[in-house]
Amino acid sequence: MRHSLNKRAQFTISAVLCVTSPCVARAAPDNIVVKIGHAAPLTGGSAHLGKDDENGARLAIEEINAAGLTVGGKNVMLELLSEDDAGDPRQATQVAQKLVDDKAVPVIGHLNSGTSIPASRIYNDAGIVEISPSATNPTYTKQGFKTTYRLVATDAQQGPVLADYASKVLKAKTVAIIDDSTAYGQGLANEFEKRAKAVGLTVVSHDAATDKSIDFRGILTKIKGERPDVIMYGGMDATGGPFAKQATQLAIPAKILAGDGVCTPKVAGLAGTASKNIICSIAGLPLEKMERGKDFEKRYVARFNKPIEVYAPFTYDAVYIIVDAMKRSGSIRAKDILAAMPSTSYTGSLGRPGLMPKATSNKARYLSISTSTENGVCSTL
């Protein structure tokens, strides 16, 4: 697991008064406020995932403020600056610039690869570290920016594991591929396709939809005529659920493979009984296999009165990783935090990097992907 951080702290005067949980900020002359940026879709089809990410970061900040934080002998209070990128690459760059202008020190986000990649240049130019809890497109961390970090595996791991599962476990010979034309969906589908061909699968077709598509019957009717053993869908749950449901309505028997964007609690409601036909991967540990997952889940549900979607534990740990770097560097300056990040050795809710154990799910079946090795680990369910 690779983590890091960067620049720009806003110094204001404040203190923390813990009346009930959560804590509230009160002005006081001996505290320094450090702004923690967050960016994710808080509106649109992935808003439930973005809010989940925001909640994870918020919970960490509230806990840290309640416990009291001292860095370099100075009292520090964290403040969350959360912005809505709507899952749109253009809006993501506007949000990134706003967070820079508002003096965020690091930024946790963005949720999507398609927003993380364009925003990362702005953070890099400003010297602000970006830690994405979920961006899986390899390009995100291959741009040569020292400020970009992720807490999950990439599609270069996730795609091949799905292809190997199709070949070795499902014994598939043919596959139809469809993606949503985003950096995430298309990237995952392309990585899957490369591996599928390498292991001898015949790709009968590769079609493209959009991340706003809701009617897949035309493409699915064509795919039905191709009679593939499996279908690979590169996209998010908001479209993956209807895709699976419509495939079942058209009596297509093929199993549907998908990535972590589909592997959410919401997909069961969107797909209905067709969710049992979905096999999806997650680019990190499932909650029940996280070292401190159960404890985190209890605190999360108690605070927000709702279940965790997917990546809240990752944004939660990202905040603590930032604070760990602050403490080790004795500084809240971004350049000092950034310098401390490569040597991070932190055990959080996610535990430490390692191979994924066998996973289970009461919704869709899924595969676990390692965050620390170049090879994914496929769970047999």
Automatic annotation (TrEMBL):
Q: Where is the Leucine-binding protein domain?
A: 34-355
Query: One Pfam match, by short name?
Result: Peripla_BP_6
Q: Which UniProt keywords apply?
A: Signal
**Signal sequence span per UniProt?**
1-27
UniProt lists the family membership as follows: Belongs to the leucine-binding protein family.
Which PANTHER family does this UniProt record tie to the protein? AMINO ACID BINDING PROTEIN, LEU/ILE/VAL-BINDING ABC TRANSPORTER SUBUNIT
**Protein name as catalogued:** Leucine-, isoleucine-, valine-, threonine-, and alanine-binding protein
